[in-house]
Amino acid sequence: MTSAEVRITGISESKEYILERLRLPFAVIERGDIVIRSPLDPSLPLNDHLVWLWGILNLRRKHLKNLQQQSDIKIVCRCKVPKGSVRLLPNAAEMLHLLSMELVLETR
Question: What b/e sequence results for 39-76 when a residue is b if at least 16 CB atoms lie within 10 Å of its CB, and e otherwise?
């Protein structure tokens, strides 16, 4: 069972204002962070979840990069994956690279 989320942490501005400005679908405020979770079926591979998240974030990439430059926000992609090997293809790794995003994998 696989799940993936992008978590924006260290936000000093109004989280509601940032959500409104970024217009991130599926985004919620949770414990002071902005979180976007993949709604895809947990049986799909991690790569599919990351590509879906990138589809949401790519359109807002410039805004996210501006936020990173103007403040100390950190963008982390947290994923839960089954034990075994994990394959990331370039279309999923692109998000991690272009948004200077840390990837955290947790095995179940």
Answer: ebeeeebbbbbbbbbbebbeeeeeebeebbeeeebebe
Q: What is the DSSP string of the chain?
A: --EEEEEEE---S-HHHHHHHHT-TTEEEETTEEEEE--S-TTS-HHHHHHHHHHHHHTTHHHHHHHHHHS--EEEEEEEE-SS-----HHHHHHHHHTT-EEEEEE-
Which pLDDT score, from 0 to 100, does residue 108 have? 80
Number of Cβ atoms within 10 Å of the Cβ of 4 = 26
12 pLDDT above the threshold of 80:
no
Q: What is the pTM of this model?
A: 0.91
Q: Distance of CA 90 to CAs 7, 32, 45, 47, Å? A: 21, 31, 14, 9
